[in-house]
Design brief:
The chain is α+β, with helices and mostly antiparallel strands and about 475 residues long. Helix content is about 25%, strand content about 20%. The protein has helices at about 5-15, 30-35, 55-65, 115-120, 140-145, 150-155, 180-190, 225-235, 280-290, 310, 330-340, 390-405, 425-430, 435-450, and strands at about 20, 45-50, 70-75, 85-90, 95-100, 105-110, 125, 160-165, 175, 195-205, 205, 210-220, 240-250, 265-270, 295, 300-305, 320-325, 350-355, 380-385. Helix 11 runs antiparallel to helix 12. The structure holds flavin-adenine dinucleotide.
């Protein structure tokens, strides 16, 4: 049943906001509820477009007093559970960024995107640990860990968090750091936004202005050769190099370079972030050798600000479904399995099936929440389908189920919280994202900070029965 908020109640709420509040049917409601992933149809009872921390506090208190749950959205790239019947806090207008060049840190508001941070940091010769696209929200990304092409060298962005302002389930603003609310500080760095709404976040930046990165595209028919060579080459790399290999079904769109347009390809991609970026040429040479002429080779020294070109993720909103698993290793048998589901004769409707290499600093520190499995996963697999029609959705889902089945023998059973979305964020999948002892600690934290599960529209860690 849809929750209807009385007009007078709504007016009283609006009077206390700097931002705006929209009930279903009102102007602005659809726009403020719409997620980047068009499959996330959210029907909140109210959406509050916040202008600052005070609006977030007001919205959480209002939800609590009205007995509703709270969801939060910056971009809608990672909706874990649709905010149906709850209060959705849209943070997209809270985008300020401040860089401290001496401490080498950035302080961002809840709605800042990586593309807001990059130029501010680069002005001081610094870089943040952006993921595959700079259009993702920094806070949401960091709540699930957050790793990209600098990952093996510098780790997850969550590991570099220094301080956060957090609105808790009572609507109070807490300052959270290694010195204040240290239990919450531990859980915040990977707990998927389960314990409160971060209104601002401070994290480390790193001295870096350019990298060597790109893609070498081969016809998908060469997948066996490319994967075998990639498997042995990548095993010998130092942590200054982060790599991946991806099957791509590239759409026949005008902006795609002609040699790739409408083609099924396999690409070796990656980034070398050592002191002399041009040294990357030599590091990537062995993987090129013996594979013959590629369709295209885009590797070059590039500014940090151009790193979106490595993953070439779509920018405009789209319907997407994804399925991700951590894989033990790229053995000959695993290679055969990947070719069966994504190779030339697989009939794959997916736009991408990618493996990114783990290891190095990504495996994290003992004292942090463990987000990348128990250390026996060398790769993370991420399979994505675009779904513009119900028929496409059916085909993609069926194929993702096949990917799950065929790759099962090579999965470690661990999952990564950030690559989980919508119906993949089930209770079991979320539990599999953490080692059992960490998960237990997270549930205890939920019991103490959010026993009523106010923050439930996410990749949810439910409180224990005792707390409810
Ligand atoms: C195209 C694409 C590329 C991606 N690439 C990478 C990648 O390379 N590496 C990687 O690690 N991840 C990647 N992701 C996953 C992405 O990091 C997550 O989906 C992340 O949650 C997106 O954050 P958002 O704020 O943009 O999305 P939103 O959908 O707005 O938020 C997602 C969730 O984050 C939490 N959250 C957001 N804001 C707050 C807040 N202020 N306080 C508390 N919790 C909050 C909430 O649980 C919310 O439901 C990618 C996703 C997509 C769609």
């Amino acid at each position: 049943m849809e929750t209807v908020i009385q007009g007078s109640t709504l007016e009283a709420l609006r009077a206390g906001l700097r931002g705006t509040a929209h009930a279903p049917g009102e102007e602005g409601y659809e726009e403020a509820s719409r997620a980047w992933n068009l499959n996330a149809h959210q029907r909140p009872a109210l959406v509050v477009v916040a202008e600052g921390a005070a609006d977030v506090m007001t919205a959480v208190r209002f939800a609590r007093e009205s007995g509703m749950g709270v969801g939060v959205m910056a971009t809608g790239h990672g909706v874990g559970a649709a905010c149906d019947g709850g209060v959705l806090i849209n943070t997209s207008r809270m985008r300020s960024v401040r860089v401290d060049p001496v401490a080498q840190r950035a302080r961002v508001e809840a709605g800042a995107l990586w593309k807001d941070v990059i130029p501010e940091a680069q002005a001081h010769g610094l870089a943040g640990l952006v993921g595959s696209t700079s259009h993702v929200g920094v806070v949401g990304y960091t709540m699930g860990g957050g790793f990209g092409w600098l990952g093996r060298k510098y780790g997850l962005n969550s590991a570099g968090v220094r301080e956060a302002d957090v609105v808790n389930a009572e609507g109070k603003l807490l300052r959270v750091s290694a010195e204040e609310h240290e239990d919450l500080f531990w859980g915040l760095k990977g707990g998927g936004g389960n314990f409160g709404i971060v209104t601002s976040l401070e994290f480390d930046l790193y001295p870096l202005t350019s990298v060597y990165g790109g893609n070498i595209f081969y016809p998908v028919e060469k997948a066996h050769e490319v994967l075998s060579r990639y498997a042995s080459w990548s095993a010998s790399l130092s942590e200054e190099t982060t790599t991946g290999v991806a099957f791509l079904n590239i759409p026949p769109l005008p902006f795609v370079p002609e040699p790739l347009r409408g083609k099924s390809v396999i690409t070796v991609r990656g980034c070398y972030s050592g002191e002399k970026p041009e040294a990357g040429e030599e590091i990537f040479r062995p993987v090129r050798e013996g594979l013959g002429e590629p369709i295209m080779d885009t590797f070059s020294v590039m500014p940090v600000a151009a790193m979106d070109a490595i993953s070439m993720d779509p920018v405009d909103p789209m319907g997407a479904v994804q399925y991700s698993e951590l894989l033990r290793d790229l053995t000959p048998e695993a290679i055969d399995a990947l070719i069966e589901v994504a190779g030339a004769d697989s009939g794959s409707p997916l736009i991408m099936l990618e493996l990114r290499q783990l290891g190095g600093t990504l495996w994290g520190r003992q004292e942090d929440l463990n987000l990348m499995g128990s250390g026996d996963s060398k790769f993370i697999m991420n399979a994505i389908g675009a779904t513009f029609t119900p028929e496409m959705m059916e085909g993609v889902r069926a194929h993702l189920a096949r990917v799950a089945e065929v790759t099962r023998p090579y999965q470690t059973g661990d999952t990564y919280i950030n690559f989980m979305e919508l119906d993949y964020a089930s209770a079991e999948r979320v539990r599999a994202a953490y080692p059992p002892e960490d998960f237990e600690r997270l549930v205890a934290l939920k019991d103490s900070y959010d026993p009523q599960n106010v923050f439930r529209f996410n990749r949810n860690i439910a409180p224990s029965k005792a707390a409810q």
